[in-house]
Amino acid sequence: MQKLGIIGAGHVGEHVIANAVKSELFGEIVVLDNRGEIAFGEALDQAHATGQFSRVNVNVHEGDYDDMVDADIIIVTASHHYFPDPVPEDRQVLLGNNAAIVREIMGNISSRTKEPIIIFITNPADTVVHIASTEFDYPINKIMGTGCMLDSSRLRYTVGRHYDVDPKSVSGYMMAEHGYTAFPALSRLTVSGIAFDELSEYFPDVEPLDPQDVKDNIVEAAYHVFRAKVGVTNAGVAQAGIDLARAVLLDERTVLPISTYMGEGTPYADNPVSYSTPTKVGRNGWEKQYFVSLNEWEQQKLDESLASIRANIELANELKG
């Protein structure tokens, strides 16, 4: 029986719970939230649904860190609770509160076990992954964030809509920071095998896409949802978390644009940092990072993005005191 731990039962967490139950990947799901009544309520609500004939009989319940020692995967969605104040739009502003939350969570997990794969959805995604990967004696390959998975889904959706094709016919991804400085690796994007710079030959009646416009539109897309839903985006990123969990549990060796730790001397950066690049994922966590060659525009955007992430890492270190 495969077991999932979910830490954080807020807007994102509730979607993770629901998607996890429907995925039929897990026999047991343990929910933890520092607002205990929320974890209890969300778990019980999903547990009640297992009495319906469309659902499998999953054991969904509230629990604590001791209940997660034997989990296969732990998904962390926990974030500072701002109510009644509005949630900040800037993911980086969240660091002031979320750095301490992530440190507390990792301390509780790492003091009990080093076995589960840990998937972070908490923002700012890349800095959170960096804190977890560098400050605790936990296997680095078992720590990852959904990173640019959602950004990449938005990219495929946007390009698909532009060329009037199914988004799944688009192969492409966003890279680097999950945030303002994420960028599309358009030199690697294809539509049913047709390279980005050849699309005008096959879609002569469609206006060509400008790389900077694509980047700006994808980054802004998150805020279309955020503002309309009054301070939250949750459905897409929750599904990304479960898709990543599936890749791990089924040992799919899928290549996904997830956020992972990069040590010294990697092709893109001399100093340690964490960000999203295509990465192979299997049963033991992330297995291999792919450093694809980039064109001049993409390299410039990568450099800008890494500078942004490093600034956040420095702030996280200052907050540690």
Helix fraction bin: 40-55%
Broad structural category: alpha/beta
List SSEs in N-to-C order. Answer: EHEHEEHEHEHEEEEEHHHEEEH
What would you call the shape? Answer: globular
Biggest sheet strand order reads 3-2-1-4-5-6
Taking the alpha carbons of the first and last residues, their distance comes to 42 Å
The fraction of residues in strands falls at 15-25%
Q: Which whole number gives the mean pLDDT?
A: 94
Main sheet makeup: 6 strands, parallel
The count of helical stretches stands at 9
Summarize, please.
It is built from 9 helices and 14 strands.
Please explain how this structure is put together:
It is a single chain. The mean pLDDT is 94. With 321 residues, the chain is of the alpha/beta class. The longest helix has 25 residues, at 296-320. The protein has 9 helices and 14 strands. 40% of the residues lie in helices and 18% in strands. α1 packs across α8, α4 packs across α9 (296-320) and α5 packs across α7 (211-228).
Keywords for this structure?
321 residues; alpha/beta; 6-stranded parallel β-sheet; 3-stranded antiparallel β-sheet; 9 helices
What's the structural blueprint in terms of helices and strands?
Elements (H helix, E strand, L loop, with lengths): L2 E5 L3 H13 L4 E5 L3 H14 L9 E4 L10 E4 L18 H16 L6 E4 L4 H10 L8 E3 L3 H15 L6 E2 L2 E2 L7 E2 L5 E2 L2 E2 L3 H4 L8 H18 L6 H15 L4 E9 L10 E10 L2 E5 L6 H25 L1
Helix pairs in contact: 1-8, 3-4, 3-9, 4-9, 5-7
